[in-house]
Amino acid sequence: MVERKQQLERDKVSRLVNWGHWFALFNGFLALIVGSRYLETVGLPETLTGWGYLALASIGQFSFLAFLLYLLLIFPVTLLLPYSKILRGLAATVATLGLCILLYDTIVYDDYGVHLSPFAFDVAWADLPSLLSGTSYIVTPIGILALELTAANFLWKRIVKIEKWRIGGKVAAVVGSCFIASHLVHIWADAAKVKDITRYDDAYPLFYPATAKSFMESHGLDSAGGLSKLGEQQQLGYSLDALSCKPQSKPNVLIVAVDALRADMLNPQTMPFLSSYGSDNQFFDKHLSGGNQFQSGMFSLFYGLQGSYMAAADFQTISPLLTQGFAASGYALKRFGPASNEINPRPLALFNDFDAALMDDSESRALADIQSREAFEDWRRQQISPWFALVNLGAPDTYDTPVGFAGIETIKAPQGMAPAQRVLFSQYRQSLHFIDSELKSLISHLPADTLVIITGTSGKAFTSNETEARRDLSPQSVRVPLIIHWPGGEQAQINYTTSHHGLAPTLMTRVLGCTNPITDYSAGRQLLMPSEQPWVYVGDNRFFAIYQDDEITVIDRHGKYDIYSSDFKTRLNKKLSAPDLIQVMREGRRLYHQ
């Protein structure tokens, strides 16, 4: 009798477990339907191979999520409380909650481009009214719960009949095969750079497909020279509408971009010529580079977009609209600078519209700067049509001066510097003084109709640690001078905050005569009027800062953030301003095709 009762209990638990598996499979199917909303954001495949992979990945991933939820929350209760009524109600409630979270994640992903996490949830919670509009957020959970209860009861009443079909193992094999096959296909696609497959890497929540790199590393193979994944998930609309440009005049344009040019070091003692030149022209007193490195600074300067777009695959082939516009208007374009800045350029098409004269700087950056200036002057004298030139000077980045250069008198370093920093400070001043003499030689012989722009690609942190320098987004690394000389002379000191993002739209509207709204092709605003945005994005797509008038927020790719005072000397104990971050995230996705 006791054995019979125990057998009945085991049969009941076994039946409940079988029921749970089929219920999980049903919810995997529902999750697949809800998850199809992600494709509205990422886009549909363009090839048959992409469709095949997407089918495998979708079935495998959403079935996995459903069974994971079952194993964690329903299966333990099945063993402890093997009562069908309790389990059906609990399972329906858990499944409803899971589907609602998945549905909310699709909304957050569509709006911000990230999946739910503690960081993303904080941001989305502050933006909840705009994310959830109408009464759908009340009606939908009720509808899902009703469907779940109906399905739970339907499957329980027919579980004996379903067990007789003996197809559970086959269904599990199919689902498991889809899951494994999708990862195998992704390993191949990652190695072969099949973007129609790898573009879905971040599309689904908790989706971590195997890569060729991780596969080779797990087998003891060196993949250091492996494949870097660009931001190929979506295509850009750059610009959002066809440009309409008609220049009224065609002045020559010279951009002098100095690597590691700190704004706080521009003074009459260190750089007497540039200080005087700034006073005689438009001097932007609160200017920010778009990044703390050469690549992010140049990207913001020419594309006029925040660094979150640097990983876009489109920019491996699409050059800046600014240089496209000058080339289309009949300008001769050429750039001059150190060859070392060409190593691993990001993005690849940044300088596609320029002819290049690059100087070997393996021995001396200062010597390469002299050669760049001389090469520019020789080229300029040969031009008979309007020209657009970029001269990149790099000596300050390596604290370099030419052999025999007569420097300036040393001064006491600012308080708070370590001994090694005081040495770097003194050598940096000597390098800036050398650059000042090069700028004087460069500018003094220019034709009168030349529009001159002098700025820094970035600032400079006094450290020999490259990793520390790459992560330093303090004002010393991103505040740079900006001086503009307009033919005919416009003198002014601009005291509101500006950034590199504003240069491209300023030149495109004032020189190329483009009439499109600036937001069609840039994240910046005209330099000659204050921006309505209360923030400036500084950095790339991995590590960035949000500069505001009274604080600086530094955020890494994992959502970890620190908030500092405007002088970066005090770490503030406060929470992130969600409304401002929401604006930043939306700007970082605004140009992507939906």
How do the helices and strands line up, and which of them pair or pack?
Elements: H1 2-35, H2 38-42, H3 48-80, H4 84-112, H5 118-126, H6 128-131, H7 136-157, H8 159-165, H9 168-192, H10 195-198, H11 212-218, E1 252-258, H12 272-280, E2 282-288, H13 294-303, H14 321-328, E3 332-338, E4 355-359, H15 365-381, E5 387-393, H16 419-444, E6 450-456, H17 466-471, H18 475-478, E7 482-485, E8 492-499, H19 503-510, E9 536-539, E10 543-547, E11 551-556, E12 561-565, E13 571-572, H20 578-587
Parallel strand pairs: 1-5, 1-6, 2-8, 3-4, 3-5
Antiparallel strand pairs: 2-7, 6-7, 9-10, 10-11, 11-12, 12-13
Helix pairs in contact: 1-3, 1-4, 1-7, 3-4, 3-9, 4-7, 5-20, 15-16
Mean pLDDT: 87
End-to-end CA span: 66 Å
Strand content: 5-15%
Output the structural class. alpha/beta
Side-by-side strand order of the widest sheet: 4-3-5-1-6-7-2-8
Low-confidence stretches: 213-232
Shape: elongated
Main β-sheet, in a few words? 8 strands, mixed
Helical segment count: 20
Number of E-state strands: 13
Using only C-alpha atoms, the radius of gyration works out to: 30 Å
Helix content: 40-55%
Explain how this protein is built.
The chain has 20 helices and 13 strands. It is α/β, with parallel strands linked by helices and 594 residues long. The strands form two sheets. The chain has an eight-stranded mixed beta sheet, sandwiched between helices. β12 and β13 form a beta hairpin. The protein is elongated. The chain starts with a helix and ends in a 7-residue tail after the last helix. The model is unreliable at 213-232 (pLDDT under 50).
